[in-house]
Structure formats: structure tokens, C-alpha cells
Amino acid sequence: MIKAGGLCALPFLFEFWAMEHQLPPEGDWRSWVILGGRGAGKTRAGAEWVRAQVEGGMPLAPGRAKRVALVGETFDQVRDVMVFGDSGLMACSPPDRRPLWKAGEAKLIWPNGAEAKAYSAHDPEGLRGPQFDAAWVDELAKWRKGQATWDMLQFALRLGEDPRVCVTTTPRNVEVLTQLLEASSTVVTHAPTEANRANLAASFLEEVRRRYAGTRLGRQELDGVLLADIEGALWSTDMLVQAQVDHVPELDRIVVGVDPAVSAAQGSDACGIVVAGVRMQGEPRDWEAWVLADETVQGVGPIGWAETAVAAFDLYGADRLVVETNQGGLLVEEVVRQVNDVVPFKSVHASRGKVARAEPVAALYEQGRVHHVRGLHALEDQMGQMTVAGFQGKGSPDRVDALVWALHELMIEPAKKRSGAPRVRVL
């Protein structure tokens, strides 16, 4: 029979409730990395690990660690997620062991005197000077100054007999994380979002499965899988992550790139339809582009894709449709004219291979001159499979082709004209 006091304590006995990936592995390690999908219980595992380090057998008894670093992407994320979040330290702590938050010092102080201080990954130098015997690092793969901050933390982990760090992160193919995973002193546990389904809204799981199952983003954000870039990829995962923005400025010109499908039969290639715009400040070599939408359709027939392309033209206030006419020739324009007989239409013809056309566009991304609104998952998935040896995915890279035509029209052709380079037929 469990005594009343035991029942009161049961919610705070994490080892009783924890899933396997939330418990630290046994053995001699310095870094424990918890790789997981969104909502897989990483934050709770990190908070409970910190509790296990700082708490002793009784509320005032010392624990294994006395000085802990809490490092997140920003101070706000440390406070709002790691400290005060639904699965953060305050929520996980029993009343008699709950720490005090001193906002002015960005510090937690436990009843037994242990302390945990918040640090931002935007300020690696903030970790120069202090020293710790434990650290909890959250979302390492998102940090813009990841390597510098991680390095400073390693120099600071020098107190006690066995300083350790717990890293909770959704995986991304960034160097600081891949090097950490390769280290002999690192242990890893892993879980997909589904592992924690008992604590997640059913509607959330249903929606994310429907939208992202089978995509690169889904494998990363839901399955918690670290995706290595395909060898020779023109667009790396990190490049595409860096391209994402939350704000689009006023644009000077917008076009809709279209790569028509040969057939509307089930299982045939899709018709790529991508909307992009440009801000024309300074010389063309300084212009920047924003990819606004991917309206790609499949199995709708010629009139269907033409209606979708014209609707995108109208919705985004575009200046022109830029349409590849390799398949269908003049008939392609005739189809569009049946939908809108006055829409500005430019026919482009591919005389070189897809890779040759895509490489100068990929170079614009390397220069940081192309940005993506969030949510272009299917397009970005195809981009990640486009390599110097060709497309490594199934079917045709229809979305990428439409993107390439749009960005050639907005960025590359104007630069050629301004530089006086010999005019060639559109790639």
C-alpha cells in the first residue's frame, strides 16, 4: 500500500513516468544528446536531468552539481521554455525543492544553494569567465553562433569530478551537432514525435502527419532524424534553413514560373508553379529575391494547371507568367490564353540540362540573395535532392524547374543584360 506522502511525491518521480529516451544512459560519458521530433519530450527530459544533478536526498541536501549553465538560443527562450515552460524546471520541481527565479540575475537558486544561470547562444563571450559542473543546452542545432558558443561552454565545464552536459535538440545537419555526435565521449538517445503521443493533442498529430509525412522536413522535425545532405547537392539543408524568413518587404517585380506537365494521368509528373519576386535596389548583382509560394498541381490537365497559374498571377499581383514550352510548344500558350487572353506571357525553352540551369540559381542562395517564406516544404525537399549529377528523387523536379525559371527571369537575365554579357537563348 502506498502511503499518502508517496502518492503526493509520485508525479515528481520522473524515473517512474519517463520514456526510455528520456533517461540518461549508463556509463562514462561527457555529453548526452537527446535527438527527437517536435513534442517528443526533450524539454522535460532536460529539465528532469538538471533536477537529478542539483537535488539531494532531502530538500536542503546537496546534489551532485552546484553550478549549472542553462544555454538556449536566446535569453527569452531559456526563461520561457527551459525555466517557466510547461515542461520546464519550475513545472517539474516539487514544492519543497522548487527553485527561486531571480530575474535581475537570470538565475535559479534551489533551497540547497545550487544555482543555474541562463545564457544566450547569441553571446558566446558571456560564457567566458564563469565555470560549471553541469549544463543543459537546448536546441543546439538552431544556434546561429553554435560552434563558438559550444566551444566557450566546454572551457567553462571544469568544476567537480565529472562535469557533464545534456543537449536537447531537434536534429539539423549543422557542423557543431555532427561533430558532437561523432565524439567518443557522446551518448545519444532518440525518439520521434509519436513516442510522446499520449501527451500530445490528437489533432496536432493528425495534422502534422497529413502535411509532412514522407518529406525531408517531416523526417527531421517529426522523426527526429539527422538528415545528411546528398553528396553533391546544389542546395544544402543548412542553406535552405538560412533562406527562411518571416517578413517579405515590398517587392518591385513578381513573376510566376511554370513547368507544365506532359500528362494529367495519375502518377504523372506535376506541373510546377512557383511564385517569386525581386527587390531591385542597386546594381542587379545586388538584388535580392523572395520565393513567395509553391502552387504546384498534379493530375489536373492543361486547363487545370493554366487556371492555377493564372490564379497565382492574380493573387500575388504578378507581372508575368514565365512558362517552359519544351513540351507542347505554341499549344502551351494557347492553353493559357483560353483561361486569360491578356495575361503577360513569356515562353522559355530549355536548351541545356536541368543541372546547368539550376547551378547559377543555387549560387544566388550561397550568396544569401534568395529568401523563402516559411512552409515551402515540398519545394525545399526537391531542392535538397538536386545534385551536380542530376535529380536524385523520384520523377521530375517540377517544382525546382519552375523555381529556376522564375529566378532566371528575376535575377540572372537582368544581370546579364547589365553586364553586357553575350545574349543567349534562355537556358
Shape label = elongated
Helix content: 25-40%
Strand order of the largest sheet: 3-4-5-2-6-7-1-8
Taking the sheet with the most strands, its summary is: 8 strands, mixed
| Unreliable residue runs | 421-427
- Proportion in β-strands: 15-25%
Number of E-state strands? 17
Rg (CA only): 26 Å
Distance between the termini: 79 Å
- Look at the structure and give the CATH class of the largest domain: Alpha Beta
CATH topology of the largest domain: Rossmann fold
Total number of helices: 15
CATH architecture of the largest domain: 3-Layer(aba) Sandwich
User: Which class best fits the helix and strand makeup?
Assistant: alpha/beta
- Overall tally of domains: 2
What is the mean predicted local confidence, pLDDT? 87
CATH superfamily annotation of the largest domain: P-loop containing nucleotide triphosphate hydrolases
What does the model show?
With 427 residues, this protein is α/β, with parallel strands linked by helices. The protein has 2 domains: 4-221, Rossmann fold, CATH 3.40.50.300; 237-419, Nucleotidyltransferase, domain 5, CATH 3.30.420. Helix content is 34%, strand content 19%. The longest helix has 22 residues, at 398-419. The chain is elongated. It starts with a helix and ends in an 8-residue tail after the last helix.
